[in-house]
Amino acid sequence: MNWLLLLLCMVAQAPEEGDPLDPEPEFKIDYEEKVVLVDLPLRIVRDGRPVTELKLADLTVQENGVPAQVRDLKKVQTPLKMHILMDLSTSNADNIFQIKAATRFLIKKMRKGDTAKLSYFSNTYQELTEYHDNRDFLIQKLTRVTPLGSTALYDGINAALEDMRQHEGPKALFLFSDGHDLMSHTKEVDLELKVKNYGIPIYMISYEAANAKLPPLLAQQTQFMTTLIGLSGGHLFRGDREFQGDLNTALKRARTRFLVNYISPNAGAGKSWRSIMATVNGCNNCTLIYRRGYEM
């Protein structure tokens, strides 16, 4: 009787035909999506002035014509390359003390990551230093600064711009001059074209009185420099006064960038050149300065 009961229990608990003794593990497919996040520093100039406010909703970014998803937009202060160009012509001799003092001020305001280069012009353009982050070294080099010779202002600006365009990242030219030129080979039209194309802001500090009565040629040159500075996105500071506050403002403007973070579209398409196009809705007469592409 016990044997018969045991047999019946075993038959009742036996699995049906075709049912597995143990359940199969669930089959899962691993799917990996490549996501590439891109940081894009962006500088915007409108009518010769930096734009310092921007809404994310107004910004559009495309890669190779495909819209990208912009994740974040913030305003940042970035390390800066400063090229300080001093007018050491004899006509500017009375201002050498102020020029040195203002240059020392700029050097002392350097932040971590900043570099500065010192140069000057009279008859010709000369470099005092390469780009350097050592403040004491740069200030020491100012002891060699003495007025001499005539004025080749346009040649000096041209040489400084050609030097600066070889370097990446945010940069600004700080120019100490009365704005007059007596012997340059560089033509005004050529200098204006370079300023438009290079996108380097020029901040000019002139100790000449703003309402000074000038001979026609010098008045014409002063007007040209005013136009040139505006085209660069910089600013002209004029008058016989202290410029510390103005220089602080200029440094802040030159360092200000918008940092755009977006997801690259079609990131899994393999290695290729990605052309970037950024636009700002409703920003009339705006020039956007940013890198135009990258290799993935």
Automatic annotation (TrEMBL):
Domain (VWFA): residue spans on this chain? 79-237
Q: Which top-rank group of organisms is this from?
A: Bacteria
Listed SUPFAM superfamilies: vWA-like
Q: Which NCBIfam families match?
A: acidobact_VWFA
Its recorded name reads: VWA domain-containing protein
